[in-house]
Amino acid sequence: GAGVSQSPSNKVTEKGKDVELRCDPISGHTALYWYRQSLGQGLEFLIYFQGNSAPDKSGLPSDRFSAERTGGSVSTLTIQRTQQEDSAVYLCASSLDTRAFFGQGTRLTVV
Amino acid sequence: GESVGLHLPTLSVQEGDNSIINCAYSNSASDYFIWYKQESGKGPQFIIDIRSNMDKRQGQRVTVLLNKTVKHLSLQIAATQPGDSAVYFCAEIYGQNFVFGPGTRLSVLP
């Protein structure tokens, strides 16, 4: 596609439920990043995929968070047993070299 | 990639004035820097970039200055307009490792 696509754009879930957020990066981009952004805050790094290398998971806040990237393309961020503090916008970005392009984000609300 | 910090300082400027947004970066080995603009409800969008072998780069109404001695980056916006109201992030890049600054919210006053 022309840009990074994320789905859903909005997700409301009940506390304790699992959610999956999807990211379709720009075709051919080898690097993919997930960030979390709470209301009015900066970008919190979550996880980074680069080609076939092991992902950098150092930003994942707890073991309830996991992500995978299948076939070097689409990525899914999974949050298990969601908590209210997980409410935020989850942003995905991809890059081929030095410039990262962001999707519009998924706004997650845990009620 | 990681964020330096999550607090969001705010800069308020009068419409028509020049804006200067500052950013301190952490890694002297970073060889590429980008400024992103994030409008409400949208993902960050690329504004301008600069390589470490330069100290200044100009775009349309925007200028980025790089001071490697003190590891400081700034974004200057000339004749600030209401449409410039947004959150601005700097990013330092080494390899494909992106490190974002905490962001600055720019508010343009009428």
Radius of gyration of chain A: 13 Å
* Percentage of residues in strands of chain B: over 45%
- Count of extended strands of chain B: 11
- Helix and strand run of chain A: EEEEEEEEEE
The rough form of chain A would be described as globular
Structural class of chain B: mainly beta
By DSSP (H or I, 4+ residues per run), the number of helices of chain A equals 0
Q: What is the oligomer described by this structure? A: heterodimer
Strand runs of chain A, count: 10
Mean pLDDT of chain A: 93
Distance between the termini of chain B: 37 Å
The rounded Rg of chain B comes to: 13 Å
Helix content of chain B: under 10%
In terms of per-residue confidence, which ranges of chain B show pLDDT below 50 for 5 or more consecutive residues? 1-6
Structure notes:
The complex is a heterodimer of chains A (111) and B (110). Chain A is mainly beta and 111 residues long. Chain A is 0% helix and 48% strand. Chain A has no helices and ten strands. In chain A, strands 2, 4, 5, 8, 9 and 10 form a six-stranded mixed β-sheet that branches. Chain A has a four-stranded antiparallel β-sheet with strand order 1-3-7-6, with no helix packed on it. In chain A, strand 6 and strand 7 form a beta hairpin. Chain B is mainly β. Chain B is built from no helices and eleven strands. In chain B, a hairpin with a 4-residue loop joins strand 7 and strand 8. The N terminus of chain B is likely disordered. Chains A and B meet through strand 4, strand 5, strand 8 and strand 9 of A and strand 1, strand 4, strand 5, strand 9 and strand 10 of B.
